[in-house]
Amino acid sequence: MINRHIAPDITELSNPVLLKHSINKLANGIEIIITNDPNQEVFKMDVVYNTGTINQSKALIANTTMNMLCNGTTKHNSNKIAEIFDYYGSYIDTNCGFAHSELSMIAPTKYAKNTIPLLGEMIQESIFPEKEIEIFLRNKYQEFLLQQEKTSYMVLKKFSQLMFGENNVYTNPVNKEDFKNISRDILKNYYNSNIQHSRCKIYLSGCINNEIIKIINNVFSYHCLDNSNPNKKIVLSPAEFGTYSVNKKDAVQSSIRIGKKGVQLVDNEYPEFQVLNTILGGYFGSRLMNTIREEKGYTYGINSLNVSLPDTAYWCIVTDVDNKYVEDTIYLINKEIEKLKTTLVGDDELKNVKRYMHGSILREIDGVFSQSDTLKNKQKFGLDNTIYNEIIEKVKKCTSEKLLYLANKHLSTDAMYIVKTEEITE
Amino acid sequence: MIKFKKKILDNGLTIICNEDKGTPFVSVNILYKVGAINENANKTGFAHLFEHLMFSGSKNVNNFDHYVQIAGGESNAFTTNDYTNYYITIPAVNIETALWLESDRMLNLNIDQKSLDVQKSVVIEEFKQRYLNQPYGDIWLKLRPLVYKKHPYSWPTIGKSIKHIEDITLEDVHSFYNNFYSPNNAILSISGNIDEKKAIELVEKWFNDIPRSNYISPIIPAEPKQTEPRELIVKDKDVPADLIFKTYHMGKRMSQNFYDCDTISDLLSNGQSARLYVNLIQNSKIFSEIDAYVTGDIDPGLFIFRGKLSEGAKVEEANKAIEREIQKFINESISEREIQKIKNKAESRILFSEISYQGKAGNMALFEFMSNVDMINNEVNFYRNINESKIRECARKIFNKNNCSTLLYLKK
Questions:
Q1: B131-147 pLDDT, tens per residue?
Q2: What would be the CATH architecture of the domain defined by A22-220?
Q3: pTM (2 decimals)?
Q4: Could you identify which of A161, A206, B127, B316 might form a hypothetical disulfide with A43, taking C-beta atoms 3.0 to 4.6 angstroms apart as the criterion?
């Protein structure tokens, strides 16, 4: 019988292997960032624009515009567009953030010539059919109504309003009336100035051959203007710290969100703050998971997260618990935070978290598609994937004293927003 | 095409390994052939609760996650009606940590009253969070017993009720563990940066000495043929829109019928060029969402239509509209291009699924469980076999009103 008393030796983790990317520039200034892996049979293409909800004059414009790209061009109607991508076993998707918007495709490399030109057509020749706009908004409205019923969404919304200000762009303010105020002209205007002939960046990953490069050259060499939109300063008007409730009829559980301003990716102390966050609630073995889930059984899950936005960041703890556990849960969360501010994190725990974080970074950048994705996201902050080496180095060197200092600097429980749902019965 | 090596140990453990040099990691995946269908109808939710307990430590492992994490790994699991699946993704250099952990909890799981009590309350909160506190969250709790009268698919993996979870005893847990968590009831698959021969040797090293179980699990009762239409109306919930479900019994996962039905659901509802989208959302505007899909259960499963009504649309009208689309589908022809589209899509879906080593490890175990791991590379043939007359024949057989259960989930 094998001896299971002794755990197998663990080999220290290595530094990540960063894949090389190359940059092609088209004559019109469009940058193509290529991470090639000839062992794949498929490729991914992300077309990224410097525009998003920050740049819209009314709610819903930016997101609706991105969706409409798939819904009709001068040459193909929405059904035909969907049919062609389907026929060539390819998937398209759109995404709209605060400061960036994307049109993405994943396709077998052998069908590049059948799919990329259509993608280009959607960017340059979309026609925004009234009928499609109406369908999209009608269905979006149903989703909107459903969301309003979810306790987790209700506290998220309230929390954002407290953090950033009632109608701040970061709260994604959308009201019932907004769905009636979107016209074809408004969308076309936004499209003309922010997408159609704007300068995008194109990220290519997977099996990228010369044919693909040639097709992209042909399709994307149109005249284009620089749309590096002037940095719009987002003015925040945070509310007073404290405890806030939102009412929900007949809810069996309460959603809780506790948080404050976070530490942004570009901040010098970001890696160490991530260590602190991970210890508190950033992984399955975290202190909050141990106390609130594994010891008390109050919840299915509790997490803390630190999210970077274009020019700020927020940090928060989220969980759902039975109504009767709300007060004790908040008490225990506060206790865990206080502990981080007064007691040094032990050597073993710190060592474990460092290893865990190292492993999870390696996982995050594993493979050609992931690395192209992380490169894209880091470039939005003016960085690239080498930041991962720096993060790993700083995480490795992080001390308990540094964590104590950061906990006192950032985690003052008097300076936080505590938001929870409160059940009301009819 | 996935290359792999397979071996069955003397104690009955099936091992399947695939080398993938594109990653520094390996995924160690264990599928146990036990799911909610193996539960007693009066003690449901058991298999899923047990999955939680598998993380409570074993004889030589006081804290399972701790060891995964310090080796740079990550671990999770899920329970379905048919099986329970555990996986650890870990740097390939530390694969033995994963094998040690998995072998120790297969051999000697620690279960005490304290961890049982805590996991019971965690699962009860999960029940509330996912099934009670979400709009429409309890649909499957209502739909399953309407559709299945004998077969244990009549309850969801979370269980029929919170009461069932509360009533679980330590004794129940022990006998469940002894019966089902044995090498001859498991498939261990590995994909990642390790030589296949080496991987098999290491699995043998850690699992060879685990004894098999002699438990023979009772035969699962088959669902009798449905002979009349069924309907259930739920109207006491605060939801923003009416919802309609129409379900039809179909074949099991590893039958040509499954692939025919999968194709029908694709033609009807996959993407914005599909029939239901064009006719019921774009043109008639009755629905804001409409889907047709198959459950893919191992035993005979369900073909499901799910529609969310637009504001003002009448539910009778919606029901008729779906039935009309079904009739049209049976009577109208399917073009060559549509058939080709289905084949191209199946091919690329398989291609995409081979990108990730975690996906490969999971799929190898699943195919071995369903029939034989070789099927993973032959599945595309089922799609190549598809032709118009077979599809129409299949639709005619399945979409029969006596085979249909309708659930109407209406707003107050």
A1: 988 889 999 999 999 99
A2: 2-Layer Sandwich (3.30)
A3: 0.92
A4: A206
